[in-house]
Each structure stands twice: as C-alpha cells, then as structure tokens.
Q: What sequence folds into this?
C-alpha cells in the first residue's frame, strides 16, 4: 500500500495518537477493481532514495535511510563529537567534514525528533512541553527560510513541513507558489506539492486539494479527505455535483473493493475497512448502470464494469456477464478499459472447465496480463486471483496437469498444491511437461514458462512414492536426484548430521543452531539420504520376510526405528517432507502413517524372549503413544487407551526385570506421562 506523507501531517493536527509512520498493511486478497492508475510509490521505497544514493555514490541500506527518521538529537551530537557514526550517510558527512550537509542533517534529525516527541503515543507531552517542541519548529523554519545553497529544495521542503506542523496553512500555500513550484529535485517537489494540497484542505478548499491528491495518486490522503463520502450516498452526491468529478474514480473503486472485502470474509482487512451491506451493494449496481447508460459521464466503462464486479461479488453471475460484455463496448480511459478486460476474465472463468474451445481465449488474455504485469503490479495480482479462485478450483480434480501448471507458473499461492497429488499423478505431470503431446497452445505457453528443475520432479515423485510405501518406484526416482539439489534445501544440514537408525526414544539428535545453518555442514552432505533410506528399508523388509524366528524380532525392532524416524515426531522427518509442522503434513494424498507402521513392527518385536529387546520395544511403544499428548485437539479416547495399555506393559516389565536398558530413570518418564495424561 502507499505511504502518504501528507495524510500523516493532516492526521497529526487532529489527534496526538497518530504517529508519523502511516503505513497500511496490504490485505491478503487482491482487489480486482482498479481505476486510479499506477502509483509511482507502490514499491514502498522512499522517494528520497535517489538523492542519498547519489550523495553516497553507492546503494544505501534501508536501515541507513530509515534510521535518519528515528535518530535522537542526542545520538547525532554524540556522533558529531566522535567524528563518526554507524549511519553511512551521517558518517560520510562527518568524514568529509561536509559542514553544509552536517547542518542539514542536524535540522532534519531535529525535525523528526520533535515529531517523535510531539506525537508519541506512549508518552504524551504536557501542554508546556508541546509548546516548547513547537518552538523548535519555528527555529528550524527560521534556519530553513534563509538558506540559499545547493540544498535549497530540501530546505524549502523543511520550511513547508514546519509551517504545516505549526498550522500556518496559508503560508504553506504561499511558499509552494513562490518557491516549491520551481523546485528541481522531483522527490522534494512532489512532497511539497502534497503538503500544498494538505494546506488547501485545511483552508476548506477541498476540491482543489483532492485534484492534487488524485494527480499524485495519494490514496490514503484521498481517503482521509473523503471519509464521509465513502458510501453510495457520497458517490451519488458527488456525481450530482459534477458528473465527472475528479474523485469519483476513487469513491467507486473504494466502494467496489470494500464490497470485495466484505465478501471475502476469511481474509485480512485494512484498518479503514467499512462493511457494505447487500442492499447498499444492490442499489449501487442499479445506480452505476443508470449512470453508464445515461451518456452523462465521460467514462461509462468505469461505471458499467463496477456494476459487473459488484454483481459478481453478490453472486449474480449472469448479470455480471451481461454488464461486463456491455462495458467492453463503452467509452473510457485506457486504465478503465484494461480494468474491465481483467474483470471480464474473472467473470468468465468462474467454474470454467478448461477445453480446447476456450483455450485460445485464455491464451490471449493471459499473454496480455503477462505483458501488463511487467510494468503494473495490479495485473499480476488480478492474474493470481483469477487463477487461484477460479481456474485451479474448477480444474484441479479433473485436469491435474493444467492445475499444476497454473499453480507452478503463477507463484504457488495455494501452498503445497502438489501435496494434493499422489505419486502416480505427479509422475503423470512430469511425463506431461517433459513430452507434451496434443496440448493446446495455452498449455504449451504455460509449459514454456515453467522454471522447475528435473531434480525437483524426480525428488517430488520419489518422495511421494516413498510416503505411499511404493518403495521400488520411489527408489527409481530418488536415485536420479543430484546431491546438489538436496544441498540447496534447509534440511540439508539435518540430513548431514542425523541418522535414521538411531532410536528416537532413547536419543534426540539435537543439532545446534550454528550447525543447522552452517554452509560447511551443508557442503558436507555426502549422500542422498532419501535414496539410501529407501534402499535400506527395502532390504530390511526383505530380510525380515525371510528371517528365522530368532532374528525376526530384532529386525522388526530395527524396522520400527526406521519407520518412526521418518514420521512426524522422528528426527528424520525430512525423509518424507520438505517442511515440518506440529499439526503434521502430508506429502501425498495416499501417504501412509509411518508412525503406525513403527508401532506395527514394535508390537511384533515384543513377542521376543530376549529381555533387553523386549524392554526396548515396550518403552518405544510407550514413547510413541505419549507423543499423541502433544496435540490436545486430536487426542481421542483410543489414544488414551493406547497410552494406558503401554504404561501398564512397561510397568509390568519393570516389576519383572527392573529398569529398561539405556533408560535409568524410566520411572521418572512414566510419572511424567501420567502427569500429562491427568492434565489432558
């Protein structure tokens, strides 16, 4: 969202609870209706970045620039006395003994320091303190107005800022008309122009102020100045005042987007959100259609597309189609026509099953969006909404290949889409993108935009098959994955330092934070552990199936160790998943429960007559069962029964044999488990 310097200045006049940093958090859902044009400040980069970059002769860190606004004057004096600073800008001025810049920085930091104190939301200044702080604005102003050197534009801006804080709005206007309008530094000039607009607003020249704020595309200041009109009544009154009023595009855009916010109930909302009731939304559609059809506006497409978008949000899809089709033939600006075209794609792709009949339409529209996205983030956001709210949901069950392509090309916004696929489906996707036959031009275009390595496919397919316990297929694909692919992943360090044959219930293979992120450890990964695990698991299963009774129980225990280590609570969870979650993750919709497999083999191991092996197996079962206490929301009576049974089993063992090997304080562990059960 856009940062508005003038909005901050306007707000500070009315409320000491508003700080100088007035940023809006961007909402999760992407607005489809946008008729205000492209903002030059959407990046969040300071407009003064270029000036300081030129002064330093190199790129500067965001910290250095931002810290100027938060430096205390005491810190600056201390830096000046020492002749050095941690801030690169201040340090360069001190090193070069650039007195002109040092004096400017002194005034700039003083200004922001006063702002911090005057509008501090935690420690409000008293009336006397506030007067003293405002006297400092007068002092800075006196210094600034008499300056005539190479930093003239910056001092003029400083003067206007001080006058604005002192509520001398007529003088702000006068200074803009005499000096600001002649500024050569564009960043200073634009900021001064915004201050000038703010001064007009405070002098009740609202329309003149709004015209400038619209030119600057200063959305936040426009919102502030029109706050009482951000509803259907305000739109109607503004239209009746002037059918082509400069602020109408904002009011319509705001109304449509707030309707979307109201409709998208599950998404985060901006702090200035206001709900739009269905009746008001329906009445807006009627009014917008009337205006568009009346030929009394210069931009009927803006009104007609707004009606279409609101009808779409209300679920009136047939009406939305008729309205957006009509909008495409109406007069409007390039911005409103482009907006209507994007909305048409949204409307037409709802529940659209992909066919060869609609493939050319999609290809043309997505190519157009792709071209537009290179210079305007709106089109990228519109594409994402269309793809992830319309096309993927409509096709993911009956056209996995297309859904995968859309998900992969447009940014994986539906996190873990591949998790919905089985190993076979993922293998089909790989064969499809590797050897595309009989594909439509749209699919071919999507495939050409894929940026996925072959290793990704091999690992993804192999790991899915591994999680499904299709070990021979898993081995085939995992054997093809290059080691460097794993070294590029976060879990490479864990893979290098952990052993899946170590009993998790006796040893927690802790990795220090230093080793967890060490490049040396990452480079030290010398084997594809997923492939090795798959091969070893197959071999051990073969040995188990062919083992004599004496060896069978030991092998069952070893299999229990391997299955548990690869499960959610094992140290080697990365064998089945790329990430870990306390709630558990599935890498395939056909994934089996490796923890259940571990319990299956450990229960077989308890049939042994070997006392040590018996104790280890019984304790392992208790340890695994008690992990279920970690998730109180999914804990069931069956889990309770399993823990009770394993507790009794271990207790019986201790009475007969004494403490379990490797677990000297197992009584303490059992007491802990009992305590957890009571808490639950």
A:
């Amino acid at each position: 969202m856009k940062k508005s310097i003038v909005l901050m200045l306007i707000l500070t006049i009315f409320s000491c609870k508003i700080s100088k940093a007035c940023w809006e958090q961007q909402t999760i859902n992407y607005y489809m209706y946008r008729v205000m044009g492209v903002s030059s400040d959407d990046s969040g980069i300071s407009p003064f970045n270029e000036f300081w970059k030129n002064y330093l002769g190199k790129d500067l860190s965001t910290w250095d620039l931002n810290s100027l606004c938060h430096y205390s004057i005491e810190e600056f004096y201390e830096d000046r006395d020492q002749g050095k600073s941690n801030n690169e800008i201040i340090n360069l001025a001190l090193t070069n003994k650039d007195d002109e810049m040092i004096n400017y920085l002194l005034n700039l930091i003083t200004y922001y320091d006063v702002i911090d104190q005057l509008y501090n939301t935690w420690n409000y200044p008293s009336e006397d303190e506030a007067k003293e702080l405002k006297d400092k604005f007068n002092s800075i102003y006196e210094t600034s107005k008499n300056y005539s050197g190479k930093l003239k534009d910056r001092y003029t801006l400083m003067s206007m800022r001080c006058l604005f804080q002192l509520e001398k709005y007529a003088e702000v206007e006068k200074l803009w008309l005499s000096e600001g309008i002649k500024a050569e530094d564009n960043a200073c000039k634009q900021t001064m122009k915004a201050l000038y607009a703010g001064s007009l607003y405070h002098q009740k020249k609202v329309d003149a102020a709004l015209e400038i704020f619209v030119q600057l595309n200063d959305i936040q200041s426009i919102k502030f100045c029109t706050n009482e009109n951000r509803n259907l009544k305000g739109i109607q009154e503004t239209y009746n005042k002037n059918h082509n009023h400069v602020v109408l595009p904002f009011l319509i855009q705001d109304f449509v987007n707030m309707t979307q916010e109201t409709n998208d109930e599950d998404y985060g909302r901006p702090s200035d959100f206001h709900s739009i009731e269905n009746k008001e939304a329906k009445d807006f559609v009627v009014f917008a259609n009337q205006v568009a059809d009346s030929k009394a506006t210069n931009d009927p497409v803006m009104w007609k597309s707004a009606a279409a978008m609101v009808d779409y949000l209300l679920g009136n899809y047939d009406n939305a189609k008729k309205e957006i089709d009509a909008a495409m033939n109406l007069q409007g600006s390039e911005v409103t026509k482009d907006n209507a075209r994007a909305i048409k794609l949204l409307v037409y792709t709802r529940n659209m099953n992909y066919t060869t009949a609609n493939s050319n339409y999609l290809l043309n529209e997505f190519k157009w969006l792709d071209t537009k996205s290179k210079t305007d983030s709106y089109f990228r956001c519109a594409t994402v909404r269309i793809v992830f709210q319309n096309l993927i949901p409509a096709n993911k069950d009956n056209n996995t290949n297309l859904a995968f392509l859309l998900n992969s090309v447009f940014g994986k916004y539906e996190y873990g889409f591949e998790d919905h696929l089985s190993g076979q489906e993922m293998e089909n996707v790989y064969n499809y993108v590797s050897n595309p036959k009989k594909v439509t031009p749209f699919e071919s275009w999507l495939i050409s935009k894929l940026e996925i390595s072959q290793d990704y496919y091999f690992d993804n397919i192999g790991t899915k098959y591994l999680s499904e316990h299709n070990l021979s297929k898993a081995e085939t694909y995992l054997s093809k994955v290059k080691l460097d692919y794993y070294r590029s992943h976060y879990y490479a360090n864990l893979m290098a330092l952990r052993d899946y044959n170590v009993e998790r219930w006796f040893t927690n293979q802790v990795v220090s934070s230093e080793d967890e992120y060490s490049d040396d450890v990452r480079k030290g990964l010398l084997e594809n552990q997923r492939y090795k695990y798959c091969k070893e698991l197959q071999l051990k299963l073969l040995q188990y199936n062919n083992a004599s009774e004496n060896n069978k129980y030991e092998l069952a225990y070893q299999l229990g160790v391997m299955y548990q280590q690869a499960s959610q609570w094992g140290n080697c969870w990365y064998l089945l998943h790329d990430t870990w979650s306390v709630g558990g993750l599935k890498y395939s919709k056909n994934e089996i429960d490796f923890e259940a497999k571990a319990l299956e083999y450990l229960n077989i191991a308890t049939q042994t007559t070997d006392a040590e092996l018996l104790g280890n197996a019984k304790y392992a079962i208790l340890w695994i069962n008690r992990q279920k206490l970690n998730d109180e929301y999914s804990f069931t009576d069956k889990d309770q029964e399993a823990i009770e049974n394993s507790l009794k089993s271990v207790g019986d063992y201790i009475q007969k044999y004494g403490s379990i090997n490797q677990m000297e304080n197992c009584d303490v562990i059992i007491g802990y488990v009992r305590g957890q059960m009571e808490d639950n």
Observations:
- Confidence is low (pLDDT under 50) at residues 1-28.
- The two ends are 45 Å apart (CA to CA).
- DSSP finds 35 helices and no strands in the chain.
- Residues 516 and 563 are 23 Å apart (CA to CA).
